């Protein structure tokens, strides 16, 4: 920027400096300085040095008020810029078919990204429209279909405004993804279909558009239909894809980066359950202790938690939370895989939840 062309420059300052600098101020130094470099001579002349200081100070005074807001805006933009393509370390494991799947997290991977931002780790960005916060609506919860959606009339989905699907579609090819997308479109749900993956969705990392038309969230917080949803497919080491090979402390560290205590989240959507709630299979608790602690550490309790993974634990549960009204939040294990078994045809059907009240609605199933 040229100070002399600025409309804010003082005319008197320009006249003063021009008058001084037009004099031969370097003349009496020519005999003592053999170097003809005018730049070096200038610093041996007190008058010229004084003029240089005046020019510098004048520039600072004139452009300071204009450059400061610019720098502040740049800093604000840098802080608020969303991170939409961040990974936590080098995530690679072996799937159930022996193939390489970039969907496992180890303790070493977490340590290598100690300073990384993880509030928005969307591998599949959502384009859901923004609406008013927490409008009244009905959320339909279903997961672990494992291909059963292809059986006509087996899964009876209630009407609703928002579909929440925490994984295990078993999409292995683009054709299967399109078939599942068509099934989703035919459901009596008026609003978005929000999905995260499960451990059996081993082919999804390599598919460009696994389920056309669906809002697919992976390790991110995204507002959909006025509700802020955190979604993740990762579970403790079990089988298949999206596995966490972490000790309890590392697990808590991992989830705390995705869900820091000040996170504003209305709905938790994870494939796996937390430790000790809806997680028992074969006499063992298979839930994630780090995930449990991270959610219970949230300063604002979520309204609803929807998970799957452990098929025999389908149904509604309560999860203790110190800041939730009544001391607990509703947790729905939405797995429907048992719907094919005798004695479970009705009880293992999808659930409908009224929001923002977060209470289950009577099952009025559509044909």
TrEMBL record:
InterPro entries: Calcineurin-like_PHP, Metallo-depent_PP-like, UPF0046_metallophosphoest
Pfam families, per database record: Metallophos (PF00149)
Domain of life assignment: Eukaryota
Record key words, sorted: Membrane, Transmembrane, Transmembrane helix
Residue ranges of domain Calcineurin-like phosphoesterase in the record: 140-312
Keyword hit for Glycoprotein: no
Residue spans crossing the bilayer: 48-67
Keyword Transmembrane helix included in the entry's annotation: yes
Gene Ontology MF, one: hydrolase activity
Name used for this protein in its record: Calcineurin-like phosphoesterase domain-containing protein
Species the sequence originates in: Volvox reticuliferus
């Amino acid at each position: 920027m040229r100070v002399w062309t600025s409309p804010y420059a003082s005319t008197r300052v320009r006249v003063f400096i021009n008058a001084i600098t037009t004099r031969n101020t370097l003349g009496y130094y020519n005999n003592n300085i053999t170097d003809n470099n005018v730049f070096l001579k200038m610093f041996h002349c007190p008058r010229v040095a004084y003029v240089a200081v005046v020019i510098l100070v004048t520039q600072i005074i004139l452009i300071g008020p204009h450059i400061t807001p610019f720098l502040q805006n740049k800093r604000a933009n840098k802080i608020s810029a969303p991170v939409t393509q961040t990974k936590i370390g080098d995530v690679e494991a072996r799937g159930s078919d022996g193939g390489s799947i970039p969907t496992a997290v180890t303790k070493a991977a977490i340590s290598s990204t100690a300073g990384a931002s993880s509030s928005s780790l969307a591998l599949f960005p959502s384009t859901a429209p923004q609406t008013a916060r927490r409008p009244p609506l009905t959320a339909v919860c279903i997961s672990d279909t494992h291909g059963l959606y292809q059986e006509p009339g087996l899964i009876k989905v209630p009407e609703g405004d928002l579909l929440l699907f925490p994984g295990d579609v078993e999409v292995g090819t683009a054709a299967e993804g399109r078939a599942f997308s068509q099934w989703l479109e035919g459901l009596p749900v008026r609003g978005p279909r929000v999905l995260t993956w499960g451990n059996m969705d081993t082919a999804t990392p390599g598919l460009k558009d696994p389920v056309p038309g669906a809002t697919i969230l992976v390790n991110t917080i995204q507002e959909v239909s006025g509700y802020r949803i955190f979604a993740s497919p990762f579970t403790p080491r079990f089988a298949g894809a999206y596995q966490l090979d972490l000790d309890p402390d590392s697990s808590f560290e991992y989830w705390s980066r995705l869900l820091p205590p000040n996170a504003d989240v209305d709905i938790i959507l994870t494939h796996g359950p937390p430790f000790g709630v809806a997680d028992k299979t074969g006499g063992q608790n298979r839930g994630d202790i780090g995930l449990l602690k991270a959610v219970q550490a949230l300063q604002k309790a979520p309204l609803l938690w929807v998970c799957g993974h452990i098929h025999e634990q389908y149904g509604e549960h309560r999860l203790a939370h110190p800041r939730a009204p009544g001391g607990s939040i509703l947790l729905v294990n939405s797995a429907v895989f048992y719907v094919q078994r005798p004695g479970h045809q009705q009880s293992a059907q999808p659930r409908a939840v009224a929001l923002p009240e977060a209470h289950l609605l009577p099952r009025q199933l559509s044909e």
